[in-house]
Each structure stands twice: as structure tokens, then as C-alpha cells.
């Protein structure tokens, strides 16, 4: 049975603030652990007033302290924004504090706009072009330190923190396959090359010290509620944010849902948003169960990373509770368990 995990952005809601977002993220992680989710990941974004997970490593520590068994990690850290040594030290510290529970997913995009990129990198201009070299440097910091290594990650050396390649293109799939690393595709917002990238990764995968066989993860938007109608209503919060992106604007705080989207987008915008949100399951319990099964079958992913952004925190909790129930039901049906 496909494993199930959660991607959270610590959404800042209209009328709320980052403190509220962090409190709700921590509460969600506790519930996720109780419901049997495998991982709870947080994503790095900058200069976005609706996303609170900019200091990703700090928030991972906050979540890990509140939980006991669920794996907590980055989905991901945008490596071009950071020196590999600093990332190795941060995640080496997290792995030391929370042994065998920390994951490090890495992406090559900056996760922000150009002006913020300049503010993040200061004098560094190479950006994403150096991602393969920076990734290999980072992997090396997690290996046992030898006498011939003048620079070490302390802590970090010898800890073997699990590293994932994140992406939404064939280039990222090729790199993950070449290095023999697990691969996570960001289909929850950029699904266009999902199936092609997963196929490429599987066919070109090279066994490594990290994996002996390919391991894939696919992102999925989920809006689950007690009825199809209520799920569709809750999903309009995400749809409104994607309309902003289609219009070239940075999405602000998560808005409340609306009864109908017709007044909030044009037919052309509706089509573009629908394409961006193709990898979505929206509905009541039966619809979610069927949609989850279809997505798992279509992608063949080893793991699904679900993300839910609803305006009411209680609705977010209910969505993930229903998703966990659907996943358990499918596991029982297949005889493999959840």
C-alpha cells in the first residue's frame, strides 16, 4: 500500500498571524502522528505573507519537539539559498536532537521572487546552476569525516541524514536517478511532467549507498469534508490563491472560502488554475477514497505527500482525518494495512 504523508506550509490566514500558524501546524503534526501518517514536512518560501515556514529548520525543530515518532523534515529546503555546510549543520543538529526522525528534501528553485533572491544570496549569483555540485557537497558532509577533510559539519558528519531530491521537471528526475536518491515530485502545484518524470527516474535509477531501488513520492492537494459540497466550498480558499498566481501576484494570507468561484475568476483563469491543480482530490469520504486510489494507481508512487490548505484550522484537521481513514480503508481492502 502506498504510504501517506503530509506537507504543511504553516499557512497564515486572513485575520491571523504567524504565531497562530505555528500553533496550528504543531497541533496538526500531533494529530498526524496519531492518525498514522509517515512524515510531516514543511516547505521553504520567502516574502510570502501567507506562508510562515520561511525558517524551515527552526520550525521543523518546533514540530519535532511536539511529536514522538512521526518523521519530520523539509519538503524542502531550497539549496541555492544556502551554503551546503550551513544546511548540513542545521540538519545535523536536528538529527542529533531527534535521532532517526529527520528528513532533508532539497530543491533547486529559490522559492521566491527575484528581488528576494538577491536579498537571500547577497553576493552569491550562481543560483540554481550550482545545484548538482552543492547537493554532492552536502551529501559529503553527512558521510563519516576522514582525516583528509579540512571542513566538517559539526554536528552532521557521519549522521547520514536521509536526503531527497525535490522537483517538478525531468532535470530533477535525472539528477535523483543518477545519484541514487529518493525523488519527490511537486505535482500539488506543477503537475505537468509528473508521469514522465517518474518514469524517467525509475528507468535511469542507479543503485547507491542510499537506495538499492527507486523510491518515489508525489504531491497531492486534498480537500476532504463530510460532503462533496462542503469540500468544494473549502477548496475555494486554495483556488483563490492560485488565481492570484495566474494574475502574476504573490498570494497573500489564506482567504476564507466562498460559495462560488464564478465571480472570482474568468473562464481562462479557471482553466489555468484547473491545470495547475490537476493533482487534487476534493470531496466527501467516498470521493476522497476513490480519488486517492486513482492517484496512487496512476502514478505508482511509493508515497503520497498530501497538502491541505483550508481557512478554518478545524476543517484542515477534519480533512486529514478523513484522508487517513480513506487510506486505512484502502490498505485493509488490499490486505496490506495502512
Automatic annotation (TrEMBL):
Keyword hit for Cytoplasm: no
Question: What are the Luciferase-like domain coordinates in residue numbering?
Answer: 8-302
Q: What EC number(s) has UniProt assigned to this enzyme?
A: 1.-.-.-
Instruction: Kindly give the SUPFAM superfamilies that the UniProt entry links to this protein.
Output: Bacterial luciferase-like
Which InterPro entries is this protein grouped with?
A: Bact_Lucif_Oxidored, CmoO-like, Luciferase-like_dom, Luciferase-like_sf
Coiled coil stretches, renumbered: none
For this UniProt entry, the molecular function terms from Gene Ontology, in alphabetical order, are: oxidoreductase activity
What keywords are assigned to this protein?
Answer: Oxidoreductase
Record PANTHER family: LUCIFERASE-LIKE MONOOXYGENASE
Name recorded for this polypeptide = LLM class flavin-dependent oxidoreductase
Amino acid at each position: 500500500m502506498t504510504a501517506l504523508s503530509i506537507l504543511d506550509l504553516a499557512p497564515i490566514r486572513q485575520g491571523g498571524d504567524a504565531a497562530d500558524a505555528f500553533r496550528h501546524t504543531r497541533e496538526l503534526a500531533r494529530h498526524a502522528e496519531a492518525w498514522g501518517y509517515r512524515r510531516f514536512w514543511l516547505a521553504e518560501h520567502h516574502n510570502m505573507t501567507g506562508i510562515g515556514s520561511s525558517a524551515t529548520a527552526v520550525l521543523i525543530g518546533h514540530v519535532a519537539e511536539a511529536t514522538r515518532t512521526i518523521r519530520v523534515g523539509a519538503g524542502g529546503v531550497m539549496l541555492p539559498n544556502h551554503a551546503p555546510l550551513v544546511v548540513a549543520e542545521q540538519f545535523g543538529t536536528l538529527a542529533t536532537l531527534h535521532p532517526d526522525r529527520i528528513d532533508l528534501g532539497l530543491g533547486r528553485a529559490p522559492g521566491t521572487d527575484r528581488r528576494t533572491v538577491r536579498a537571500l544570496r547577497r553576493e552569491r549569483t550562481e543560483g540554481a546552476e550550482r545545484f548538482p555540485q552543492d547537493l554532492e557537497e552536502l551529501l559529503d558532509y553527512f558521510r563519516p569525516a576522514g582525516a583528509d577533510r579540512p571542513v566538517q559539519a559539526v554536528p552532521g558528519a557521519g549522521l547520514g541524514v536521509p536526503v531527497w531530491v525535490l522537483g517538478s521537471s525531468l532535470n530533477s528526475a535525472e539528477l535523483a536517478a543518477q545519484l541514487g536518491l529518493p525523488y519527490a515530485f511537486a505535482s500539488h502545484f506543477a503537475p505537468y511532467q509528473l508521469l514522465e518524470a517518474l518514469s524517467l527516474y525509475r528507468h535511469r535509477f542507479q543503485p547507491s549507498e542510499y537506495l538499492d531501488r527507486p523510491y518515489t513520492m508525489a504531491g497531492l492537494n486534498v480537500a476532504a469534508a463530510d460532503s462533496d459540497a462542503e469540500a468544494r466550498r473549502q477548496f475555494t480558499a486554495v483556488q483563490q490563491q492560485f488565481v492570484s498566481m495566474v494574475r502574476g501576484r504573490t498570494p497573500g494570507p489564506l482567504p476564507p472560502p466562498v460559495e462560488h468561484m464564478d465571480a472570482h475568476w474568468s473562464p481562462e483563469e479557471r482553466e489555468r488554475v484547473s491545470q495547475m491543480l490537476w493533482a487534487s482530490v476534493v470531496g466527501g469520504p467516498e470521493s476522497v477514497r476513490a480519488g486517492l486510489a486513482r492517484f496512487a494507481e496512476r502514478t505508482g508512487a511509493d508515497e503520497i505527500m498530501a497538502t491541505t490548505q483550508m481557512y478554518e484550522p478545524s476543517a484542515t484537521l477534519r480533512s486529514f482525518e478523513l484522508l487517513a481513514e480513506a487510506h486505512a480503508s484502502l490498505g485493509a481492502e488490499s490486505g496490506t494495512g495502512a
